[in-house]
Structure formats: structure tokens, C-alpha cells
Amino acid sequence: MSRFSRITVMGMGYIGLPTSAVFADNGVDVLGIDINPAAVESINRGQPHIVEPELDVLLRKVVQGAKLRASLVPEPADAFILAVPTPFKDGHVPDTSHIEAAGRAIAPHLAKNNLVILESTSPIGTTERLSRWLGEVRGDLSFPHQSGELSDIRIAHCPERVLPGQILREVVENDRIIGGLTRKCAQAAAALYRVFVKGQIHLTNARTAEMAKLTENAFRDVNIAFANELSVICDRARINVWELIRLSNMHPRVNILRPGPGVGGHCIAVDPWFIVAADPERSRLIRTAREINNDKPHFVVEKVKAHAAKLKQPVIACLGLSYKADVDDLRESPAVEIVEQLARDAVGELLVVEPHVNSLPKHLTELGLKLWDFDQATERANILLLLVDHASFLTVDHDVVKDKIVVDTRGAW
Ligand code: SAJ
User: Fold this and answer.
1) For residues 201 and 188, what is the distance between their CA atoms, to the nearest angstrom?
2) What's the 268 CA to ligand 1 centre distance in angstroms?
3) Rounded to an integer, what distance in angstroms lies between the CA atom of residue 241 and that of residue 364?
């Protein structure tokens, strides 16, 4: 039996809640903390306040079995996990204030031999700063930045790497990187994650673990930027980029990703900026990739405008709003940005289709937009703008599409 029988998890979002539920399902008593009373109340009823496949069933089980409960205020535990957001501020500078606030909130409850884990995606050096913030509050305990291996409290960074939509499977099966402020810190954290992780656990120092998480998302961003840049070049050169990529990928050492309307979500569109902020002069490729991906929605808007200008009464079916296929998450979604811009520029009548949500975000309804059914919208429109390759969009009736202008940003049709 692990020496961790009781843990407190700070932040009940897309990472904290599933992680808590999986720990609880593996016999650990979990207290989940969030600043949002509605989230706390919902979790205590056994109902997730976020959408993730299978999470509802698991949460009901662990809440009914009294292994997981939620609260607004932390309590003492054997280990504390911080899974709070790290957005960026103006100028793409990382905002670690939620980590600091969570650290200061657990500090009064720390006791000798406790383990503190930072799971949030973090700029380089944050784990060490967390150690200092905790040390400021608890002068009676020793921390790794002061006492190294002899510290009373162990601290490690263990970045999450799960794919939204697959969280419950990936959180168990993926390998984990654990970066300790000291070797003993890393070993203590590894012992905790071994409670449920089936993938391998790789130990390193905290700075390398911080950078590894940022690197993984920057790698994907750079590769998507390459595909997006190709799509813009091919458009001008009148080459079908999808055929081009399919053919190029037949080379044994080439594997080009898919162009799209831009890069969305809360990770890949954010994390590379943390590398750029740390060393702007040397992060030229990473910054350029971000800029290319950020520009792609404007390219799509211009494309639609050019088509619409040729029609007397353009009616545009905007198919999909989420940041990627088959999820309900609209955060940082390029599709939302494109639809908003088309509405602001009064490019035509817009029929918005998004089967994964029940209502449109407020800023879109304020622009006079409403949700349409897929069949009615594709029937009525003269321009079909495919923004998300949801499975339900893929089997379109070719008789309906035949006489219409199609702008397929995903290469799905
Ligand atoms: N996209 C493309 N073309 C592609 C692949 C993706 O345009 O070929 C777009 C998607 O449509 C979407 C965006 O990129 O808008 C990101 O989607 P994604 O599926 O690549 O990644 P996320 O943001 O859902 O999750 C990523 C994952 N990171 C990596 O794959 C390196 C996940 O493992 C991380 O845990 C997650 O970020 C995170 O939380 O950091």
C-alpha cells in the first residue's frame, strides 16, 4: 500500500477532476478544491461540470463510495496536487498567479514529509518559485530550495499530457515525466503516481520536466504551422494541398500534419509562448509557428469574402465551432474567431451549425447569430464553410453540395 492515503487536489478543471477521480477509484481519499462554488456543489452531487467521455460514470461511483469530495477550502493531506490554469497575460507573458494562490492556500496545512506536486503547465523555474512561496509562509518547515535532500517537504513537477476526449484512458496509460527539485522529491512523486499510472515513469529535474511539457506542445504547433503554411502556398499556386501531403507522406521519413482553420484549445495555442517569453531572441522558429497558426483564421475569412463577393445574396453555412473534431470545447477556437469576423464584416447571412453545444456563446448571439440544424443550413446556404471535421459532418449528401461553393478548411470532404 502506498504511503499516500489522503490527497488534496487544487483545481477541479479538465485535469484536476479526472485525476482526482482516478486516484479515488484506486483507493485514495481525495479532497478536490475549487474556487467555483457551482463546480464544488456539482462534484459533490457526483456530476462533472465539464464534458469528458466516461467521467460522469466514474465520478458518480467515487462520490457515492465517499472516496472523493469537493470543497472550497483545503485540508491537511499526505500529498497536495496543484492543477490550476496557467493562462498568459498581455504580451503573451505567462500568468502564474493561480499557482501562487493555490500554493499559499495549501501552505498553512502542510506538515513534515508532505509531498507537493505541480501538474499545471508551467514556465521554466516555476516549481522552484513554488518552493519559495511555500517557504515564505511556513518558516517552521524546510523546503527543497533551502535544504535540498534534507527538506521536510518534497516538491516535484509532474506535467499532465492527456488528450481532451481521451483523458481517462491517457491519464492511466501515458508515460509520465516527473521532475523533482531533488532526487528524493522525484522518487516520492513517482511513488504517488504509481498508484494508477500504467505507463512508464521517467525521473528528471524540475526544470527539464517544465521544459518537456512546453516542448511537446511547441513541437506540435511548429508541425501544424508547417502544414498551414503549405496550405496557403498551395492555394495561391492552385495545388490541392491534401493530395500534396498525402503524396509527400509516402516518403518513409516524412509525416506532415493536417492544415486547418488555425490552432485552438487551451494548450497548443498557449504553451509555446511560455518558451518565447523566456528567451525571445532565441525562440524564432517557435514564435513564427505561433504567428503562422494565428494568421490562418484571417486567411480563411479572406477566402470566404472573395467567394461571397461574387454572389448577390451570400448565405454561408458555418459548419462547426469547437476547437477540434468531436469535442464541445470552444476555448481559443479558430472556428469561433472566423465566424465572429465574418459576422462583424457583414459578409452575408451566416447559419451556424455546432451539434455539440445547446447554445451559442453570448458574443455570437449579440451579433445576431443563432444555431442551425446541419441539414437545414446546408440546404439553404450557397457557401458551405467546413470549419470542424466532426464525424457527423463527414457523410454529407453530395447532391446538396454539388451546386454550392465549398470552403473545406479541414480537407474532410
Ligand atoms: N490541429 C490541426 N492539424 C493537426 C492536428 C491538430 O490543425 O494535424 C489543430 C486542432 O484542430 C486543434 C489544435 O490543433 O485546433 C490542437 O489539437 P490537438 O488535438 O493537437 O491537441 P490538444 O490541444 O487537444 O491537446 C494537446 C496534446 N498535446 C500534444 O499532442 C503534444 C495533449 O497531449 C496535451 O496534454 C494537451 O495539448 C495539453 O493539455 O497540453
Assistant:
1) 12
2) 6
3) 31
Backbone torsions φ then ψ of 372, nearest 5 degrees: -120, 155
Give the model confidence (pLDDT) of 282-331 as tens digits: 999 999 999 999 999 999 999 999 999 999 999 999 999 999 999 888 98
**Distance between CA atoms of residues 19 and 15, nearest Å:** 6
Cβ contact 40:88 at 8 Å: no
Decide if 121 contacts 271 (C-beta within 8 A). Answer: yes
The domains located in the chain, with CATH, are 6-199 (3.40.50.720), 215-408 (3.40.50.720)
Coil, helix or strand at residue 62: helix
* Cβ atoms of 52 and 162 closer than 8 Å: no
Is 161 near ligand 1, meaning CB less than 6 Å away?
A: yes
Strands 154-157 and 176-180: antiparallel
- The verdict on the CB of residue 41 being under 6 Å from ligand 1 is no
Q: Longest C-alpha distance within the chain, in Å?
A: 76
Residue 317, C-alpha cell as written in the block: 453555412
The CA–CA distances, whole Å, from 352 to 150, 277, 367, 378, 384 equal 59, 36, 12, 10, 11
Could you tell me how many residues make up the chain? 413
Instruction: Look up cell 453545444; give the residue.
Output: 357
Q: Is the CB of 163 under 6 A from ligand 1?
A: yes
Which atom of ligand 1 lies nearest, measured to the CA of 334?
15
Q: Looking at residue 2, what is its pLDDT?
A: 62
Cell of 108: 498553512
Please tell me the distance from the alpha carbon of residue 409 to that of residue 232, in angstroms, as a whole number.
11
Catalytic site positions: 213, 267
Output DSSP code: residue 163: P
| CA–CA distance, 191 with 154 (Å, rounded to integer) | 12
Task: Give the model confidence (pLDDT) of 43-57 as tens digits.
Answer: 999 999 988 899 999
d(CA 396, CA 100) in angstroms, rounded, equals 49
Give the position of cell 490550476: 84
The finding on whether 216 has its CB within 6 A of some atom of ligand 1 is yes
- The answer to whether 347 and 308 are in contact (CB under 8 A) is yes
- Report residues of the chain scoring pLDDT below 70: 1-2
Is the entire prediction scored with pTM above 0.85?
yes
Give the phi and the psi of residue 376 in degrees, each rounded to 5: -65, -40
- Strand locations in 321-365 (E): 349-353
Residue type, 66: A
Identify the pLDDT of residue 1: 46
